[in-house]
Amino acid sequence: MSANMVYKFATPYDPKATVLYVNIVPRYFCTNSCRFCSRKDAIQGRPNIYEKKAGTNLWLPKAPMFEDVVRELEVRRTVETTEIAFVGLGEPLLQFELVRNIITRIGTDGFHGKVRIDTNGLVKCWRKNDPAQELQKAGLDEIRISVNAVGSDEYTSISRPKQRDAFEKLCEFVRDCIKNGIDTYLSFVVGFDDGEVKTRTAEEYQKFARILGVQEKNVIIRQYVPPLEQNLRS
Ligand code: SF4
User: Fold this and answer.
1) What is the pLDDT of residue 3?
2) By C-alpha distance, which of 190, 171, 186 is closest to 220?
3) Which residue among 146, 168, 177, 201 has the highest number of C-beta atoms inside a 10 angstrom radius?
4) Tens digits of per-residue pLDDT, 24-65?
5) Can you tell me whether residue 206 is helix, strand or coil?
6) CATH of 2-223 given 1.10.3720.10, 3.20.20.70, 1.10.10.10, 3.30.1360.120
């Protein structure tokens, strides 16, 4: 399990692979089913852009144990590690307590770099009170929230959430993260059109981010990438 639980890879922007990625999502699980999500390709055995980058598939048959993740982080962390990022295929904050407890442990282990989570931002659908505050207290520095819409109906149509009031809860969580002093980024996919649903322009998303209180420098615009053709698992 460990090869795809904590991993890193070099990129032109990060040639020394200073970011350590933590994958704790079992079975690529997410409460959304975004039209452009490459998770369904990965489930069907087709490679996914993230798995391609990671050089490994990210399938975990079950959620890992706290001790196993901590041990893997100890093994793979080096003096060059500047950031630890919880990412998926799927939604990491469905394992809220596991993520929070690992972040706390990272701090007590003396890691002084950045700690980040990439999320669908729907944690308030399953976690009461103020999850942003809990994460900030644990030591979270940065959060990247996938938004991909500017209104509730549009969100339902693009991201197909399982929960009611998902978009409202997402917007609430964005505001909570800002209020709690977490460096908050919003991400939006552009360039997707399946004939039924079309994403908006970067300018429209920037405008909506401003309404939520997020500055332009914290808006991530991602170009839609169609599925890769080669089979990573073969
Ligand atoms: S929120 Fe992310 S992981 Fe979940 S379905 Fe959408 S794109 Fe996929």
Assistant:
1) 59
2) 186
3) 177
4) 999 999 999 999 998 877 667 676 777 888 888 888 999 999
5) helix
6) 3.20.20.70
Going 43 to 30 to 49 to 84, the CA torsion angle's sign is negative
Distance in Å, CA 24 to ligand 1 centroid: 15
* Stretch among 15-19, 54-58, 119-123, 141-145 having the lowest mean pLDDT: 54-58
List the chain domain ranges.
2-223
Segment 150-175, tens digit of pLDDT:
999 999 999 999 999 999 999 999 99
Cα of 112 from ligand 1 centre, angstroms: 30
Instruction: Return the structure tokens found at 25.
Output: 């999502």
User: Which is nearest to 144 in space by CA: 174, 172, 169?
Assistant: 174
Q: Is the CB of 144 under 6 A from ligand 1?
A: no
The residue assigned the tokens 């394992």 is 95
Query: Which of 25, 27, 31, 37 to mutate to test ligand 1, by most ligand atoms within 8 A of the CB atom?
Result: 37
* φ/ψ of residue 5, rounded to 5: -100, -45
Instruction: Dig out the tokens for 159 from the structure.
Output: 């991201």
pLDDT digits (tens, 9 = 90+) for 104-136: 999 999 999 999 999 999 999 999 999 999 999
Which of 23, 33, 39 is the pocket-test mutation for ligand 1 (most atoms within 8 Å of CB)?
39
Which strands make up the sheet holding 114-119, listed edge to edge? 6-7, 19-23, 83-87, 114-119, 142-146, 183-190, 219-223
